[in-house]
Design brief:
The protein has 263 residues and is α+β, with helices and mostly antiparallel strands. It has two domains: 2-106, 2-Layer Sandwich (Phosphorylase Kinase, domain 1); 120-262, Transferase(Phosphotransferase) domain 1 (Transferase(Phosphotransferase), domain 1). The protein is 48% helix and 14% strand. The protein contains eight helices and nine strands. The protein has a five-stranded antiparallel β-sheet, sandwiched between helices. Strands 6-9 form a two-stranded antiparallel ribbon. The chain has a two-stranded antiparallel ribbon with strand order 7-8. Component of the EKC/KEOPS complex composed of at least BUD32, CGI121, GON7, KAE1 and PCC1; the whole complex dimerizes. It catalyses: L-threonyl-[protein] + ATP = O-phospho-L-threonyl-[protein] + ADP + H(+); L-seryl-[protein] + ATP = O-phospho-L-seryl-[protein] + ADP + H(+). One of its GO terms (biological process) is tRNA processing.
């Protein structure tokens, strides 16, 4: 099935070497060494690029499928463009083919010593596998978690919701010190505390499921950073109010989650 999908995207980007690095229900993500129109692009990483492809869904009527694909691809590009304007760390869009569901974008992150991409999840896993507990909860990890919280807070303060906020969708750049967000296929614009609380809850549960031993510490540091940006001078007008509203709603979301678990 994957070979068929690779062949499909290859029709739209002929003669471009592709290496599949992720496959989800919504899209496939490829890595390539080719920039679509420049040999010397002004990007931090000018040797690797990402191509995201939304393949056709055979269970949908072709016209409906084409419309959905185009709409979602446009929506994702608009979301990323808004992030760039706001200075929120995320990959820049290089090129897009809306009808065919293709987004060519900047490659963020790097390889960890074990060869895995430097997502927050993989980085924390790498530290945990070293067997030194102190390195899993030292000041460096606290700083990264705080910065992740601040990044999410800045996103929410601009009434933007990620929609799939897991530790896999947070990449670490600059020697694993600076976080950036990726994968905005489910992202949306919303000023509702409920939507922002669900974002936080999804990340909280993702941390708990993948880093159970240190989850309470990591999540506390994430919320610490989240609170810090809400109380900053930059957002002094309504940051504190928005923080209280979202955290209050987060408690409700947690309660609903516990009830579902019991059932």
């Amino acid at each position: 099935m994957t070979d068929h999908l690779v062949a499909t995207v290859q029709k739209h980007v002929p003669n471009i070497p592709l290496k599949i690095i992720s496959q989800g229900a919504e899209a496939l993500v490829f890595e390539t060494t080719i920039h679509p129109y420049s040999t010397t692009p002004s990007l931090h990483n000018n040797k690797q690029f990402i191509i995201k492809f939304r393949p056709p869904k055979p269970y949908r009527h072709p016209k409906i499928d084409a419309s959905i694909t185009k709409s979602r691809t446009i929506g994702e590009v608009k979301f990323i463009y808004k992030l760039e304007k706001l200075g929120i760390a995320a990959p820049s869009v290089i090129s897009a083919d809306f009808p065919n569901g293709i987004i060519w974008m900047e490659h963020l992150g790097s390889s960890l010593p074990d060869g895995n991409i430097s997502s927050l999840k993989n980085w924390l896993w790498y530290l945990e596998k070293q067997g030194d507990v102190t390195k899993c909860v030292d000041e460096r990890v606290k700083s990264v978690c705080n910065l992740v919280g601040e990044l999410i807070g800045r996103l929410h303060l601009n009434d933007m919701v990620h929609g799939d906020l897991t530790s896999s969708n947070i990449l670490l750049t600059d020697d694993y010190k600076v976080p950036a967000l990726i994968d905005f296929g489910l992202s949306s614009f919303s000023n509702l505390p409920e939507d922002k609380a669900v974002d936080l809850y999804v990340l909280e549960r993702a941390i708990l499921s993948t880093h159970s031993v240190f989850a309470d510490t990591y999540n506390a540091w994430l919320l610490e950073g989240y609170e810090t940006i809400h109380h900053s001078v930059e957002f002094k007008k309504d940051g504190k109010v928005k923080y209280k509203d979202t955290i209050r709603r987060l408690e409700d979301v947690r309660l609903r989650g516990r009830k579902r678990s019991l059932i």
